């Protein structure tokens, strides 16, 4: 591999008396000068966000931080009970569930939005095509539907309103709404655009690449799970959750029948 | 376990058309209304932060987000190369290193600060005692020393200055500084108060419990690692890191000597 | 760091046409020639196990592989449901719970056994001292007690019997049993020696260092969790577990009272 | 969800004095009676393996346990250095890399084998088709090629020989070999069948479902990583690896140019 270029990073450099992130001095230009949301955008995207971008990222992070006794929160609480020596392990266990099925659907939704915007025959035709394709193949439509929030996910209009008020161009949002209309028509019933669909649209509006969108959910859910860690330490629920889970799953074998 | 109370949570509740976090409506009162930093504090501490608290938490999060090709960043990048299907797995691998040895030292530092503030014979005597105890037992002093930033960690004075400017009472900071003086005297050389020491003091000033402080590092390092994920996807370094690591570790067995 | 020795490893070396583990040819001497249990012992301890050691390690691994809908199994199943793209993430989430509170107690138990064997005043006196110390400080006695298996953990005598039949010297086992007697006497009631206590003793008999004992639980629980993954894929229980957990935890806030 | 069936499990049940795994008494029929490999197969597949199946699973597990300073081993060692309080976290960090790119390729290889065996026009035609399809689309052929072992992966013939000696029917192995011939012909150069390709074939021979094959790598790599944990505790390499990684990645920003 003699001809291989040395790998490079543009994120961080340091000396004995200074640290630079994206070429800005951490001590002189960042600590105490900018917020977490600005710093996070700067770290990931390599440029400082505009006020509108901050507004949208904050709305996304606030939306996804918490949703009760989710699979992630359960994993974190049970792991903390079992291994109290490692807060980071408990949070990591919960974050491993920020995957394709729930929060990770924003990635699939963003891909659909990108597909519509790139379609030569225009957004409405593409929306119709996508809706028909998913209905025919009976595959889940990422960004659509919710098992708890019916008929409509209450977060969706608020997220879109925040982005609109912040002054985004709105093409991705319009494409998502066009898909929503096509879905209702093609499926012959109303299926809500859920929060991850809305988030896919507003993050697309500000140029967040599809491949890292899930990272925004990971970051803010980390904060949500630290909240569950603190409550679990003060007011433990994990043993009750364990008991309930144990009783929820019935043994289908024969051993206990033979056990006098 | 018939007499067991049902476990409870005060964090989140939802209905089909509303989500409440800490009794506030997510849609009406939080999304678009508050920043990530406010929401994170609210989620974890159960009360809205004051502007001073926001300022301090932002400074802490900005400080700890990024420090180059750290063990965490290496774990995240190598895991992403090996399992590109799971961004959350790559970030979780990195977060598992936010432990006792580096970032987690803020917990130990906060415990020392608490010990000094609770000492009946006053902070200076307790500082002297702590310094002597650690020197005698040759155990690492959490919050002190840094392998890269010598003689002084440049982040420390900035973090403390942000907190002071925000108007905190300053007793925890004063205790930390007293410990710093005692350490220099007892060890007969200057050992810097590092960033985790300073963070332990300023988070103690605003009432963050010792047991969840490490969580602040986990949250912001998650953002840092998403930045490394994005760069790794665009400009991969993992194979170069792997090569370098392989060559850095010499085989001490005999097999290759026999291998013609 | 010019004077630093280059780090070394004695585990593995390879060339383009051969792989050596602990100086044995993987292809010529290991694959097809030895069992997993032999290989695992060889990998970790750097020497081939005796037949007696294989017998004991097998008994330990068989004992700890599975125990129903445990916190680990719950974390794995919920993570798989949420992120089906990553089997390894689901298993890792479960393994993060192999910690200090349950399976990890074998480490604490092994330390107590070592303390008794090193005591100048002999095992019985040390056993009495340990029992009194834990009773006085009201700290949990690692390796003792079980929330499900009362009055006695049925695995304990079998594990000890396997080791005895394999011909171990038995000093660590004797120390554990002495501690069991002291505990019953000091606590004035019978507290069972549990499986992790027995495992601590038999792994100590064959020279497994205390610091890696927990690793044996991690390894075999990985297999247990793969079993749960397979069942979850074929006959999903995660959503039922999630429902049960949600209902098990009551919201103690006020939001829903106000929600008409 | 009133009409939902209660979820069930056939894996484990217990009473206060007994534990049953797959309807067998853990204490009376499993501990001390069977090996880890038998137990693991029993746990996952729900039936005791034949001696031939044990032989094959052992060969697979022995093959995949260890391969030097891999991305997984690096992640485990660095995480242990950073968070020594959690052996399970260090191993979990390494296991998160048992993904699609390296070890996880056995899943893709098994799917290709299944595709050939189901092809109406026979294995040779299907092999040709698969080779052409991958060459045309320039997608990696799972189970083929190796960055270190060239021209041939030395593990492959041994794994296949073990399975053949154990008396498997051999249809999946034959399909894999047919694909190997087609690949050499279509690509006009020799590309080795690697260990994960061979493992996909032999695990398919004994009926291991494609979706859990990766689990076998996770299990045995857990053992490999515990070996790295033990060596790291006794003879640390992590700091040297970290140093090497840091030096391997060049900063491409401008900050240090300005830093006098």
Could you outline the blueprint of secondary structure elements for this entry?
4 copies of one chain form a homotetramer.
Chain A: E1 8-9, E2 12-15, E3 18-21, E4 24-25, H1 26-30, H2 36-45, H3 51-64, H4 71-82, H5 87-95, H6 105-118, H7 123-137, H8 155-165, H9 171-187, H10 195-205, H11 210-234, H12 238-248, E5 250-251, H13 255-258
Antiparallel strand pairs in A: 2-3, 3-4
Descriptive report:
Four copies of one chain form a homotetramer. With 260 residues, the first copy, chain A, is mainly alpha-helical. Among the domains of chain A are: 8-48, no CATH class; 106-211, Orthogonal Bundle (Cytochrome p450-Terp, domain 2), CATH 1.10.230.10. The first copy, chain A, contains 13 helices and five strands. In chain A, α5 crosses α11 (210-234) and α6 (105-118) crosses α7 (123-137).
Strand content of chain A: 5-15%
Secondary structure category of chain A = mainly alpha
Approximately how much helix is present in the residues of chain A?
55-70%
**Low-confidence parts of chain A:** none
Corresponding CATH superfamily of the domain at 106-211 in chain A:
Cytochrome P450-Terp, domain 2
> How would you sum up the major sheet of chain A?
3 strands, antiparallel
Order of helices and strands of chain A: EEEEHHHHHHHHHHHHEH
């Amino acid at each position: 591999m003699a001809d291989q270029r040395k790998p490079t990073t543009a994120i961080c450099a340091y000396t004995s008396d200074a640290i630079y992130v994206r070429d800005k001095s951490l001590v002189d230009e960042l600590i105490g000068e900018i917020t977490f949301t600005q710093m996070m955008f700067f770290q990931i995207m390599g440029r400082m966000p505009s006020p509108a971008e901050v507004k949208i990222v904050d709305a996304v992070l606030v939306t996804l931080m918490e949703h009760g006794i989710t699979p992630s929160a359960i994993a974190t609480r049970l792991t903390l009970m079992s291994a109290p020596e490692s807060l980071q392990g408990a949070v990591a266990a919960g974050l491993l569930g920020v995957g394709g099925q729930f929060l990770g659907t924003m990635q699939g939704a963003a891909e659909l939005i990108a597909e519509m915007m790139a379609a030569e025959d225009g957004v409405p035709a593409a929306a119709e095509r996508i809706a028909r394709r998913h209905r025919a193949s009976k595959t889940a439509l990422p960004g659509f539907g919710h098992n708890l929030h019916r008929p409509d996910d209450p977060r969706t209009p608020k997220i879109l309103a925040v982005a609109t008020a912040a002054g985004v161009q709105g093409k991705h949002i319009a494409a998502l709404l066009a898909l929503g209309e096509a879905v209702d028509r093609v499926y012959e019933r109303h299926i809500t655009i859920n929060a991850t669909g809305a988030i896919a649209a507003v993050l697309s509006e500000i140029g967040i690449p599809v491949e890292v969108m899930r990272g925004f959910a990971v970051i803010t859910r980390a904060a949500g799970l630290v909240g569950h860690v603190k409550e679990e330490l003060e007011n433990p629920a994990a043993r009750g959750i364990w008991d309930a889970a144990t009783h929820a799953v019935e043994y289908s074998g024969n051993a206990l029948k033979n056990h006098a």
